[in-house]
Amino acid sequence: MKDDQDNLILTEKISLEMSDQYLGLIIFNRPKEMNPLNWATVEALRAVLERFSNSKDIRVIAFTGAGKAFSAGGDLKAYQKLYRDEEAFRGFLQAFRSLNDAIASAKQPVIALVNGHCVAGGLELMLACDFAYAGQSAKIGDGHANFGQMGGAGSNVRLPRSILPPKARELLFTGKLLTADEACEWGLVNKVVPDDQLMDAGLEFANMVAPKSPLGISIIKEVCNKGLDMRLEDALQLEIEKVVHYCTHNHDSYEGLLAFSEKRKPKFEGR
Questions:
Q1: d(Cα 221, Cα 48) in Å, to the nearest integer?
Q2: What total of structural domains would you count in the chain?
Q3: What is the DSSP string of 211-267?
Q4: Could you tell me if residue 143 is inside a domain?
Q5: 158 falls within a domain
Q6: How far, in Å, CA of 69 to CA of 57, rounded?
Q7: Is 30 inside a domain boundary?
Q8: Residue 131 phi/psi, 5° resolution?
Q9: How far apart are the C-alpha atoms of 206 and 261, rounded to whole Å?
Q10: Does 267 reside within a domain?
């Protein structure tokens, strides 16, 4: 395990079933403070995310928290000082937004393994991920309204795009936290597992994705994400252009067809 930025986060490459491929694990590492996402942590996360995203042997990236929380969000005590400097506060929010944008646009699938509380900034980071699995004891919600705050790194925008808008407003206006099962019912998380099986579930997911074409998966992710912000007809045209280019210009598409005809497993190239 490798330390990053004075132990604000920890990173690890976990071998998958195919020996030359890895799950890139990023762990928030301030458990006593419930893993707050302050400016230094956001910058450290952005640096390691870029390193993982550009690695050809990492097929899936996962976030989780050390201790009993995924992340309880920003450091409210630090905000008392930060609020006195408008430009600094704007800079922090831009940095946090940039991190979440980088998560959403990473080449690999990104999964949040939510252990314990996932609130405010923690929720905003989770919403930027492609998937979320939750431990049974997880508590998930926005929470900003409980302290007279509002989210500035995506909760007011990504949450209504992730679940039904009335449900999103309910979470934003009340500040309530959902249980893991409720979050799954609302569509915030994909799967709920016993707390002690959360990492195993993440590895199981990674092992399902790893054998697929890395280039194909990255293009599927790109079209899914960009298509959400486009008119339907424009999104459908984007899909055609991406698929035509991928299928007619890349090894993996031809290899998949050949492997099917030869009744063997395909051997895909990296990105």
A1: 20
A2: 2
A3: TS-HHHHHHHHHHHHHHHTS-HHHHHHHHHHHHHHHHHH-HHHHHHHHHHHHTS---
A4: yes
A5: yes
A6: 29
A7: yes
A8: -145, 160
A9: 26
A10: no
For residues 199 and 218, membership in a common domain is answered with no
The β-bridge relationship of strands 131-135 and 110-114 is: parallel
Biggest alpha carbon–alpha carbon distance for the chain: 66
Tallying the residues shown for the chain, one arrives at 271
- As a whole number of angstroms, the distance between CA 152 and CA 188 comes to 19
State the first-to-last Cα distance of the chain, in angstroms, to the nearest integer.
25
Distance CA 71, CA 30 (A): 9
200 and 238 in a single domain? The answer is: no
Q: What is the mean pLDDT of the chain?
A: 92
User: What is the enclosing helix (H) or strand (E) of 113?
Assistant: strand 110-114
- pLDDT single digits (tens) 186-243: 999 999 999 999 999 999 999 999 999 999 999 999 999 999 999 999 999 999 999 9
- Prediction pTM value: 0.91
